[in-house]
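Hi there, hope your week has been kind to you so far. For a while now I've been wondering how a particular protein folds. I'm sending you its amino acid sequence along with the backbone structure tokens. Could you read through the record and tell me how the tokens relate to the sequence? Take your time with it, there's no hurry, and the full record follows here.
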Amino acid sequence: LPTPCCTVRYSGYLEHRDEPFCTNWYDRSHGLMKLGEDITLGGLEVGLLTMKKGEVARFYFSPEYAYGRQGCPPLIPPNTSVVFDVEVLDFIDSDESDMFFELTAEQQDTFPLQKVLKVADIERKVGNYLYLKQNFESAKDRYKRAFSVLGRRSSSEAEQCQINTSKLLLLLNLSLTYLKLERPAQALAYGEKALEIDQRNAKALFRCGQACLCMTDYKKARDFLVRAQRVEPFNHEINNELKKLA
């Protein structure tokens, strides 16, 4: 069965202690974590399922919902209760998306655009989680699955704008992921598709430049990177890539 993913800030404390024994509260970024895989503390799993995005809570876990009779030496003594402060930054329940992809193409076409955009966004976020875990092959598959539902015709310019915004994020992610997979030809192809939507997108130009550099097409790489530099002249990554090319 699909299990929810969430992005959380947390600090765990022993009773009557001020210093946490574990925390990610001050980390600069917080990756998506899957209940049952990345979060395995019984009480924390149960507690998070009662929360919603933006909520802050303090949980008190008796040993059977924490580290049990054995504890987790040397940090957690045997048979110890613990306290967790938790904030849910984001919550992704992929059940809705998984159910959508079980439908036939004809059934999917009956769904309103906002529902389809939500499904694509869920898939993109799960792809981002897999990317952060450096599972690039699975991340690429999620991005492609999200992109596959965005090919429907729009009934208005405003709807097409929404579809293109969603498509652009996925194309940029696909281009980057293919670079990580050391498949620059595909990275270039997806970067160029992103440029069809937004020809001045610095990220797309940069990805195309990187891909051409990997393929030793130095003239084309320079063309893309110079265009990217014109859009973002103070971008260190772009400037460094141009130095590398020189």
Observations:
- Residues 157-180 form the longest helix (24 residues).
